[in-house]
């Protein structure tokens, strides 16, 4: 949503403009989590595809009961919101009223919290069990799981979608390119790809250096050739780092976060303190010779590594 606000504010144009999302996949749908930065990884043990009620229809949205099932997105359910700002004891919230369809539930969570609950640590973890404890089964809950056949032109796996559901129809097979509707809060619809419209370009703000260096060497390289090692201060930057890290030649990539013994805290090279974080479970080890690498695979979480270990690294260009 921060990116959408910046995009709208970058132009006086109030019409339609192409963005880099297209549907040229012959209908091959892929599952995504609604929350940006959470990558979907198939886990068959979490699913019960035969567990739909007799009145439920197969579809492209995920709901949780005891396990997950794919059902019609038009179904009216309770839902679970996630709020990343409320970190004391509780980040998941059960919304029972009003019952909403999946798209309405997503909009509700994004407006009132952060997003629908996304990732297996949300939908299969201890906190959600505490949230739903006492509910009389069977109950159906929307979570932030959906599948579609749309892909970004740069090959990234970003799952953020901002469709204008009054105008967008995913079944219109001849309208396979996405556009932003600047006169409708920047929401998206689609059109035939051979039509001529204004369009938005972007420049990468970060770059992967495929050379293995110790953390201090990586820091000096970035400062001499670009700006600095990348600082991750929000989920959007984490998303770009995740996409970039996938192409690394080393199991981790250095970022600009290190432990400062004199201050007793983790500090970014840009002098920001850590507000947003994505530590791996038991991945945070404090020590005078420790800095942070992002895992190349999995959920691309942060893991403390010794400064003298050598990895690829990511520099900020701006």
TrEMBL record:
Pfam families from the UniProt entry: Lectin_C
PROSITE patterns (UniProt xref): C_TYPE_LECTIN_2 (PS50041)
Domain of life (superkingdom): Eukaryota
SUPFAM superfamilies recorded: C-type lectin-like (SSF56436)
InterPro entries xrefs: C-type_lectin-like, C-type_lectin-like/link_sf, CTDL_fold
Gene3D superfamilies per UniProt: Mannose-Binding Protein A, subunit A
Annotated C-type lectin domain residues: 18-82, 88-202, 201-316
Protein name as annotated: C-type lectin domain-containing protein
Upper taxonomic lineage: Eukaryota, Metazoa, Chordata, Craniata, Vertebrata
């Amino acid at each position: 949503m921060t990116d959408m606000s910046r995009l709208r504010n970058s132009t006086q144009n109030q019409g339609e403009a192409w963005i880099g999302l297209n549907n040229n996949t012959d209908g091959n749908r892929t599952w995504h989590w609604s929350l940006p930065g959470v990558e979907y990884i198939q886990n068959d043990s979490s699913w019960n595809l035969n567990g739909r009620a007799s009145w439920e229809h197969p579809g492209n949205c995920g709901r949780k009961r005891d396990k997950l099932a794919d059902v019609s997105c038009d179904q009216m359910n309770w839902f679970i919101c996630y709020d990343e700002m409320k970190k004391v004891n509780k980040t998941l919230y059960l919304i029972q009223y009003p019952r909403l369809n999946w798209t309405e539930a997503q909009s509700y969570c994004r407006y009132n919290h952060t997003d629908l609950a996304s990732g297996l640590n949300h939908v299969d973890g201890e906190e959600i069990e505490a949230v739903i404890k006492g509910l009389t089964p069977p109950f159906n809950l929307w979570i932030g799981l959906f599948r579609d056949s749309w892909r970004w032109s740069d090959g990234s796996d970003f799952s953020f979608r901002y469709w204008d559901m009054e105008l967008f129809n995913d079944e219109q097979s001849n309208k396979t390119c996405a556009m932003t509707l600047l006169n409708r809060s920047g929401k998206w619809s689609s059109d035939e790809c051979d039509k001529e419209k204004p369009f938005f370009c972007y420049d990468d703000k970060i770059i992967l250096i495929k050379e293995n260096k110790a953390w201090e060497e990586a820091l000096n390289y970035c400062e001499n050739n670009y700006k600095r090692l990348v600082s991750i201060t929000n989920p959007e930057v984490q998303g770009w780092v995740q996409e970039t890290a996938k192409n690394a030649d080393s199991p981790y990539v250095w970022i600009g976060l290190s432990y400062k013994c004199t201050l007793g805290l983790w500090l970014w090279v840009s002098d920001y303190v850590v507000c947003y974080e994505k530590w791996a479970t038991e991945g945070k080890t404090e020590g005078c010779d420790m800095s942070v690498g992002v895992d190349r695979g999995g959920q691309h979480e942060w893991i403390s590594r010794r400064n003298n270990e050598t990895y690829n690294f990511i520099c900020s260009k701006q």
